[in-house]
Amino acid sequence: MTQRLKRSVHATAAGLVANAVLAGVKLTAGILGNSYALIADAIESFADIASSLIVWRGMVVADRPADADHPYGHGKAETLAAAAVAIMLLIAAGVIISQSVKEVFMPHHLPKPFTLIVLLGVIMVKEGLFRFVGRIGAEIESAAVKTDAWHHRSDAITSAAAALGISIALVGGEGYGAADDWAAIFAGGVIAWNGWRLLRPAIGELMDRLPDEGVVEQARAIALRVAGVNGVEKCFARKMGYGFILDMHVEVDGNLSVRAAHDLSHQVEDAICAAVPRINEVTIHIEPSLSLR
Q1: How far apart are CA 234 and CA 224, in angstroms?
Q2: What is the pTM of this model?
Q3: Is the per-residue pLDDT at 49 higher than 50?
Q4: Segment (H or E) for 135
Q5: Whether 136 contacts 7, CB under 8 Å
Q6: Which CATH architecture has domain 3-206?
Q7: 3-state SS string over 176-231?
Q8: 250 near 236, Cβ under 8 Å?
């Protein structure tokens, strides 16, 4: 198991344990305390458990080396996990909003004051998890772990919205019971926005969108510093899990022998991979310089 995988599993495991405990606490408190916002918050936490399991499995598969059936490796499993978690956020948001809209027009019992204490504890725990998991996701540059972190932040947001709605209902008294449901609707909207925001880059990676990290410009500059390279006609990159795969067209003296051109292409590949360790593979296509064609 690589160090990167170990750190991602550590972050995911912490989230799993916390979500399992918090989901049970919120569901029980929501039922006993007459708070649909808290019940909706519990639903989001149960979705967090499933998302953490997806992230864990995606990272394990992505860490596998290339094999005969997957010559480019298994890195896309990490991107698929990120997309799946983002879609789960959208589904959870839809369930929360649709059910809350129905509850708005139904008779209400005021939520119990103790539900506020539960929510304040949940907000502190989930915000702490967001920071912990998010820091690891940023350090190992994992879209799946970053998305899982935002699942924790979304839970903190729903809890904050629920606390606001319950506070309004308790202060306003009879006639303000629906504030709890309006809070759940607002929280659902925030979750949906985060889900879409996280889904877009995952889809981009699955569609082999050009990475934004500047890897193409960096690789092009390195290739041009290799003696014998007269120019770089094309350079394309796609992300595969944590690393990148490049396709590059290099311009050389058209009078070079096949062996000399072959050796030069390996020099370019070695120089790029040495300077940018995240570039796992470079396919070089040799072109004669424009002036010699």
Answers
A1: 12
A2: 0.69
A3: yes
A4: helix 114-140
A5: yes
A6: Up-down Bundle (1.20)
A7: CCCHHHHHHHHHHHHHHHHHHHHHHHHHHHHCCCCCCCCHHHHHHHHHHCCCCCCE
A8: no
